[in-house]
């Protein structure tokens, strides 16, 4: 699981690097943001900071939806497209990885279990509510991903691996401010996601090691992400977008590790009781996990 954590950290640090590049900021910005997260966590100020940063992180998704609405639909464009081109398969894998990230499994499970822990209702009802929330989140993610694809389609002459050129993706609604909206939103979203991942991972590591207290958690929080931070800092600034795509494409393979563990736990009747995964749901779960892992294999090949 340490490898999964490192991968997730690398993804978020790379997102920060791309956001910084869009704003014309140096890579040292990542170090400043890392230190800021330490101060926030040690000072127990996450909830307070979240209230301010979360609305900013929503700026980019809303802008992409507006951009897609303004761009509209081209009736002459094909509804479906497929190609034997290597880049096509690679981008398909990257899109899968962008929607399904490893840490989302753990965050979804912990957030919903905490939300319904004190609700006076049966386990089956809580499981039903959780399923509905997961479905709603999946639909929202697909709407956002579709909006980004619609808004980005037709950017003639733009290199998608160049952060500065990619900043023009919101030019219809933001004009010259497009790179700034894109960059600030990406920085804010990656910043918040990193804190959530690191907090969850550090608490998990502390419990697994049998350690106690906030100081142990803070120490793990500070030290565990450092290898990923150093690795991202060593990547040339102009290659950040390419690295982000590579990480997204490989994400399904990384997802297979916790996915298998969660699947085995979900099928354990001693643990799950009558809510154990079985029948059509079990077959659907393993089939979906296989397809996700397969997209990662495709990324390795192409």
SSE arrangement:
Blueprint: H1 2-22, H2 28-42, H3 46-57, H4 59-71, H5 86-99, H6 102-116, H7 123-152, H8 163-166, H9 171-174, H10 178-208, H11 214-223, H12 226-233, H13 240-267, H14 269-272, H15 279-301
Helix pairs in contact: 1-10, 1-12, 1-13, 3-10, 4-7, 4-10, 5-13, 5-15, 10-11, 13-15
β-strand percent reads: under 5%
**What is the subunit organization of this protein?**
single chain
Q: Helix amount, in percent? A: over 70%
Number of helices: 15
How many domains? The number is 1
Helix and strand sequence? HHHHHHHHHHHHHHH
Rg over CA atoms, rounded to whole Å, is: 20 Å
Describe the sheet with the most strands.
Answer: none
Secondary structure tally: strands: 0
**Poorly predicted parts:** none
- The structural class is mainly alpha
Overall pLDDT level: 79
- Principal-axes shape call: globular
Q: Could you tell me how far the N terminus lies from the C terminus, measured between alpha carbons in angstroms?
A: 26 Å
Protein architecture, described:
The protein has one domain. It has 15 helices and no strands. It is globular, with a radius of gyration of 20 Å. The mean pLDDT is 79.
Briefly, what is this?
This protein is mainly alpha-helical and 302 residues long.
Keywords:
302 residues, mainly alpha, 0% strand, globular
């Amino acid at each position: 699981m340490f490898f999964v954590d490192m991968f997730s950290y690398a993804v978020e640090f790379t997102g920060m690097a791309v956001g910084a590049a869009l704003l014309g900021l140096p890579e040292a910005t990542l170090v400043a943001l890392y230190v800021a997260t330490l101060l926030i966590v040690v000072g127990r100020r996450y909830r307070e900071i979240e209230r301010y940063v979360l609305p900013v992180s929503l700026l980019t998704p809303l802008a992409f939806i507006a951009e897609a609405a303004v761009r509209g639909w081209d009736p002459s464009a094909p509804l479906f497209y497929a190609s034997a081109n290597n880049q096509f398969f690679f981008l398909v894998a990257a899109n899968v990885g962008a929607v399904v990230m490893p840490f989302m499994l753990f965050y979804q499970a912990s957030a919903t279990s905490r939300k319904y822990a004190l609700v006076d209702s049966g386990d089956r009802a809580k499981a039903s509510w959780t399923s509905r929330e997961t479905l709603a989140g999946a639909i929202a993610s697909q709407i956002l991903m579709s909006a980004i694809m619609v808004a980005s389609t037709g950017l003639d002459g733009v290199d998608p691996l160049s952060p500065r050129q990619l900043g023009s993706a919101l030019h219809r609604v933001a004009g010259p401010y497009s790179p700034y909206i894109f960059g600030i939103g990406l920085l804010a979203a990656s910043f918040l996601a990193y804190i959530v991942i690191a907090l969850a991972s550090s608490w998990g590591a502390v419990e697994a090691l049998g350690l106690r207290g906030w100081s142990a958690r803070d120490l793990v929080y500070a030290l565990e992400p450092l290898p990923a931070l150093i690795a991202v800092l060593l990547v040339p600034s102009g290659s950040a977008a390419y690295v982000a795509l590579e990480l997204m494409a490989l994400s399904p393979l990384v997802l297979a590790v916790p996915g298998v563990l969660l699947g085995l736990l979900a099928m354990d009747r001693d643990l799950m009781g009558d809510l154990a995964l079985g029948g059509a749901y079990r077959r659907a779960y393993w089939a979906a996990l296989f397809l996700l892992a397969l997209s990662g294999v495709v990324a390795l090949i192409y």
